[in-house]
Amino acid sequence: MTTPGSIPVAAHRNAYDGEPGEPFELSVPIEAPVAIETNGVAYAVMMATPLALEDFVTGFLMAEGLAEAHEVGEVAVHRTEDAQWGTGYVARVNLPVERLGPILERARRRVGDSSCGICGIEGVEAALRPLPPVPRASQASPQAIHRALGALAAGQELGRQTRATHAAAFCDEEGRLVALREDVGRHNALDKLVGALARANGGQGVDLSLGFIVMTSRCSYELVEKTVRAGCPLLVTISAPSDLAVRRALAAGLRLAVVARGDSMLMVDPGQRFVEGEGPVILADGAERT
Question: Cys-Cys link to 49, which of 183, 195, 248, 287 (CB 3.0-4.6 A)?
Fold first, then answer.
């Protein structure tokens, strides 16, 4: 079985003894170039799964600091075909005129693109500019996080079929699933999720401060920044964070639940102290690391 985000590939299921295996149909996720144009200006080309591209463009522009949710107009997606490269997509959107200055300037400086949104930025100071504080502390309990992990696993239709995609989900503070998006890239999945929530309720959006984000990935600093800028107070990931992710999260007041599995997780809460030469202390089940 396939979805609009996957295609079948003929394969063989072989054992390691070298004996020929039986035929097997493998579902693989689609990865295609998506060109984002704002007011006729080619801004970025991202590699993404071509599902929920309107959500993706909205979330991407918000994460890049190029627009607020209410400033993103209708996203027109056009499919393109190339004899050499295959299928691609062009997503066109118009933003308010006052947004064009920064867009034109950054487009001129951009020397490359990646889903982290950092390539082409000049200087460490620009890459690590201060983040706004999260608007409120998360009230989600460990039980709610455990419930959300189950909802995340159950909602990954494309992931179950391909075993090759990431998912980002938003749950309320009781751990109930509100929205979920999937993509080959973890950053793309989060951009899609934030965009979907911004476009929900007839464009009125969803208040991300009243829930938390849970993801099938490591906790990279780019995911921390996107979560903070979306106004969400808690990020849950199934793998570990980098030191920069922890430092950026603590500086913004973002709570982290990392290496979150079925039996336990590690909590990194705002206000934790730093150990000289070692970085922040990570608490697990209430016990301080020594």
Answer: 183
